[in-house]
Structure formats: C-alpha cells, structure tokens
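Subject: Sanity check before I submit

Could someone independently write out the structure tokens for this chain? I want to compare against mine line by line before I put it in a report. The sequence has 339 residues.
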Amino acid sequence: MVTVLGQKVPTGASLTSLVNGFLLTKRTECPSLETNKYYEGILKRFLWYINQNQLPEDTRLLNEWHIREFLSYVSSQTNRWGMSGNGSESSKNKASYTTIHHYYRVLKTFFTWCVNEEFLKESPMVKIKFANPKLKIIQPYTNKEIQNMLTVCDYDFRHNAKFLASRNKAIILVFLDTGLRAGELSGMMLDDIDRDRGRIHVVGKGAKERVVRIGATAQKDQETQDTLELLTKLTGNVNEAFKEEQSMGISKGKMAICQLVNEKVPCNEPDELASLLNNVVTEHTFQGWQVQPSVYATIKRDIIFELAKYAKEHPEVDLNPDDYSKFSQEAMKYVEKHF
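---
Independent answer below. Compare away.
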C-alpha cells in the first residue's frame, strides 16, 4: 500500500517537515513538557531510522511495511539509534513489549494527525494492530521494608547528614500518605502546602491540578504535622542553600563535590580537596561532553589521580585502593548532573 497524499501538501513534502509541524501542534495544544519530549524523542528516532536505512523521506511513498520494519528494529535490535557511552543505557538491551507499544502509539497518533489535517488521505498504520500491553502488578513495600527505610533516615540524621535524612524521610512519608507520582512530588513548592488543613496542591500529568490530603484519619494527625514540618523545613533549607550559593558564587556542582568529600574522605581541609577536584572536572567538561565516553573516562581517572596525590601529601586521608574507585564513581554521578 502506498500512502495517498492529500491536497494541502505540495509534491515532495518531506517527512521531517510534517514531523516538525506535528510537534509544533502538540506544543501549542499540550502544556506538558514531558509529554512533548515523549513525542519528540520517538519521532526523532523514527527519522533517524528512515535516514540510516535510506527509506523514502517523501511521505507519500511510506507504506505499512516501512513502519513494520521500523517496529521490528525497535523490538529486536540491541544498541539502537547509533548511540554509545553515557545516555545509551536504555537502548543497549532489547526493548520490552510496552516500549514497542509506545512507538506504535506515537506513530499512529502522528499519521492520524496527518490524515485529520488533510496532509494524507490514508494512514500507513491502518492495517497495523498492536494489542495493549498487559498491566504489570507492582508489589508494594511491606511494613517492615518501610520501617527499615525510615530507620536509615533516622540513622543518617544522627550521623551528620541531617538535611539528606530530613528530605528522604519527608519524601517517604508523603508517598505513603498521598500516593503521589514522583514527578508530582518533585515539583512541589512551599506555597503548595497548606499546613493548617493538611493539604497539598499538586500539578500532575497533563498539567492537571488537584488537591490531596496528608493523613486521612485522626490517628495520623501527628504524623501529618511531622511530615508537613519536614517538607516546610526541607523547602526552607533548599532556599537558604540557593541563597548561600548565589552569594558565594559557588556552583551546584562544586557544592555537590564538597558534600561528597565531607561524607567520604577523612581530611582536615575538605574545602581545599573539593576545590582541587572541582578544578579537575571543570578543566575537562564542556557543552555536550556527556556523549563522549573518552571524556568521561578521563575525568574519572583524573579524580582518582588528584585524590591519590592529595592523600600522599596529607597523612590523615586514610583510604584503601577500593575507596578511590568508589569515590570516583560517586563523584561522576554529580559531575554528569551538574557540569
């Protein structure tokens, strides 16, 4: 089957131009950034596949078998999209049926849009059918597992990690009380919390707003107040940290490295060591460095070298060989996020 072109599209209109038009429409109709990124990511990979396999860029020449070949590539190939190094982890293994179904749904939505906008008279997806994936039953944490997590938070609080412990305990308690999505909780602001009524204003999927309660029964009133107090304290600490960062001219990356040094390295001058490590990182990082595996390896190696050099000059830094490797691995998590 050859896709029939509608009257609006000039002869030779490219698939790329229609994808860009579809994404523009989605951005104007849907305010959710994550939803738009979802559509864009899948369609950009579809364009990559078309280009790599020299398939027709002219939309009127695409047919159902081109689509089937693409979905077969998604389902059967490892190391997809020509990616390697950091950021390619999700494409290294074969895709699950749920992932393949996501690609099917997006392509179906895109070609349906082409038909509705009279760019095409018929979609190449008409004869392609995918059953909905089976819902996976997620086993909840047991009471003992939850208590263990809270115990870890209490331990951290008593051992010089008060901010981290407060944050984690607040997150766990709010999840237990409300069932919020991770994205909803992470986007919560101080003004969203009504402590007097025990309510939180939430912006969820599709930018939909709702109000949830913390502590549904009278027996949980104290836990409700404790949770809200933790959240309020957490937000206040974050705001103060941002103010301090701005006044001192310290980057988030350097603050993260300082925190890691304080937690992992026994030394008398943690700020000095953190500054040296920060210099190592900034020397090698630049816009887009994360997609170059050699740069990642170089930074990780130089962090170990700098830490070993510092330990040699400062006897109080008592680390074994495994500690250097573990520290560099932890440090690279912060480096990838903040540099």
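---
OP: Matches mine. For the report I'm noting this point. The radius of gyration is 26 Å.
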